[in-house]
Amino acid sequence: MTQDEMKKAAAIKALEFIENDTIVGVGTGSTVNHFIDALATIKDKITGAVSSSEESSKRLIAHGIEVFDLNNVDVLDVYIDGADEITKHMSMIKGGGAALTREKIVAAVAKKFICIADSSKQVELLGDFPLPVEVIPMARSYVARELVKLGGDPEYRQGVITDNGNVILDVHNLNILDPKQLETDINAIVGVVTNGLFAQRGADVLILGSESGSQVIK
Length: 218
Ligand code: 5RP
Known about the structure:
Distance between the termini: 24 Å
Mean pLDDT: 97
Radius of gyration: 17 Å
Strand order of the largest sheet: 2-1-3-6-12-13
Largest sheet: 6 strands, mixed
Oligomer: single chain
Order of helices and strands: HEHEHEEEHEEHEEHEEEE
Helix content: 25-40%
Low-confidence stretches: none
Structural class: alpha/beta
Bound molecules: ribulose-5-phosphate
C-alpha cells in the first residue's frame, strides 16, 4: 500500500463512527480529503458538517454537504482530523496545513476526537515535525525571539496566510518531553494565536492506516 492508500483506508474506516442525523466535525488535510469524499457517500444520512478550514468547506460544499457555522451548533459528537505526528498517549502535532487554530476550536467543541492517519505519523516523541505556531503578523519577530528562548529554531512559513489572516512560524528542534506544558507555555506568548500541540485535548481514538489495512486504537 502507498502512504496515500493508507490514509484512504483510515479515512473510510472513520465512517463507522458517524451516527445518523448528526453534524460532523471535519478537519483539514489530504487524509481528511479522503474522509470528505467517503462522507459524501452517506451524505443523505447526516445533517451536515462543521469545517475547520476554507479548503475543507469548499470540498464539502462541492459534494453537496451543508456546512454549518460552529456558532449555530450546540453539539458535535465527533471531530475527524489528521495529524502530522501522534504518540501512544494520543498527543499530536498538527498544523502542517496551517489550519491549526480552527482545528483546535472545532476539536474543543466535539465530544470525541478521532484521528485518522497513516502509520508514518505514529511516533515515540513529538518534535521531528516542526511545530506550527499561528501568530498575529505584527508580533512575528517578537514571538520568534521568545520561541528561541524556549529552545526552538523558528522558521517563517513564507507565502502562507492562514484562514484567520495570520502567519505561521514552524519551530524546529524543540525538546517536547512535556507536550501539555509546552502547549501552555507557547500559548502564553503575547501575539501567539495558538500552537499545533494538541496535548491538553488529544485524540480519543486513532484510526491508523497501515500495510494490513486500518486499525482502531483507543
Ligand atoms: C492541517 C493538519 C493536518 O491534519 C495534518 O497536517 C496532516 O495532514 P495530512 O492528512 O495531509 O497528512 O493539521 O492543519
